[in-house]
């Protein structure tokens, strides 16, 4: 069970401090949300920020690309030091090629689907990927409410993993709190992204501990 704090809700003027803080608090991955103002209605950050964060933490950098035609930037994010590059099925006509490209650069590949997209959209690449991310909110912003219906897809992905012998991790992203995390784990998720729950608190370390306690 891994906790991946999303720096989307961190203090962008103090990113190093906020990354080190969650690493010391026992976070497992650093989740980095890249948005282009087109695939989602918000703009965040690019490969230069990933490169700047690479030397400040030993934790794997889990880069979630919410951008149109992510294949245009996969190489830049790989060079910047991403450990995982996760691309949306809805953002490209060439999901398979995108996954191949990520892997050819020696980076772990992930695929992600929005709440309105069915699992069958990523089924043809499941044997190739290291990570499957099921969005539990519509991407674009932190602090939204968890959409419980998405858990059916987490279950489906967990079942396919079992029956077909796939090896991917199953990640959920959006609205994860000490209350919703349990149902995600029961559905089969093993990596939990949490943005506002961790960072919009005076005690991010305590919040990470609460998430871990909820999983016991
Ligand atoms: C949403 C992003 C999430 C976001 C989650 O588009 O992909 O990673 O940071 O934020 P919370 O945990 O606040 O829902
Ligand atoms: Zn994300």
Automatic annotation (TrEMBL):
Pathway: Carbohydrate degradation
Residues of the active site: 33, 173
GO biological process: pentose catabolic process; pentose-phosphate shunt
Pfam families assigned: Ribul_P_3_epim
Residues that bind a divalent metal cation: 31, 33, 64, 173
Reaction equations catalysed: D-ribulose 5-phosphate = D-xylulose 5-phosphate
Enzyme category, top tier: isomerase
Transmembrane segments annotated in the record for this chain: none
Cofactor(s) for this UniProt protein: Mn(2+); a divalent metal cation; Fe(2+); Zn(2+)
Enzyme Commission code(s) on record: 5.1.3.1
UniProt keyword terms in alphabetical order: Carbohydrate metabolism, Cobalt, Isomerase, Manganese, Metal-binding, Zinc
Coiled coil region boundaries: none
Entry's cofactor comment: Binds 1 divalent metal cation per subunit.
Residues noted as binding substrate in the record, renumbered to the chain: 6, 64, 140-143, 173-175, 195-196
One GO term describing the cellular component: cytoplasm
GO molecular function, one term: metal ion binding
InterPro entries: Aldolase_TIM, Ribul_P_3_epim, Ribul_P_3_epim-like, RibuloseP-bd_barrel
Entries under SUPFAM superfamilies matching the protein: Ribulose-phoshate binding barrel (SSF51366)
PANTHER family membership: RIBULOSE-5-PHOSPHATE-3-EPIMERASE
Protein family membership: Belongs to the ribulose-phosphate 3-epimerase family.
Role played: Catalyzes the reversible epimerization of D-ribulose 5-phosphate to D-xylulose 5-phosphate.
Protein name: Ribulose-phosphate 3-epimerase
Organism: Vagococcus elongatus
């Amino acid at each position: 069970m891994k906790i991946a704090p999303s720096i989307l809700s961190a203090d962008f003027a103090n990113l190093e401090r906020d990354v080190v803080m969650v690493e010391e608090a026992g976070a497992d991955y650093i989740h980095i949300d890249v948005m282009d103002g087109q695939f989602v209605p918000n703009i965040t950050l690019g490969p230069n920020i990933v490169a700047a964060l690479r030397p400040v933490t030993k934790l794997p950098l889990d880069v979630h690309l919410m951008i149109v035609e992510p294949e245009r930037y996969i190489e830049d994010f790989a060079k910047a030091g991403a450990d995982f590059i996760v691309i949306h099925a809805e953002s490209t006509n060439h999901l398979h090629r995108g996954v191949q490209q990520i892997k050819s650069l020696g980076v772990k590949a992930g695929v992600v689907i929005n709440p309105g997209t069915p699992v069958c959209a990523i089924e043809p690449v499941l044997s190739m990927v290291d990570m499957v991310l099921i969005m539990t909110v519509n991407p674009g912003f932190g602090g939204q409410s968890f959409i419980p219906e998405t858990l059916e897809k987490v279950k489906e992905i967990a079942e396919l993993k079992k029956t077909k012998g796939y090896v991917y991790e199953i990640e959920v992203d959006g609205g994860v709190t000490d209350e919703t995390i349990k149902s995600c784990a029961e559905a089969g998720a093993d990596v939990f992204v949490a943005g506002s729950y961790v960072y919009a608190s005076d005690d991010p370390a305590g919040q990470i501990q609460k998430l871990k306690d909820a999983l016991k």
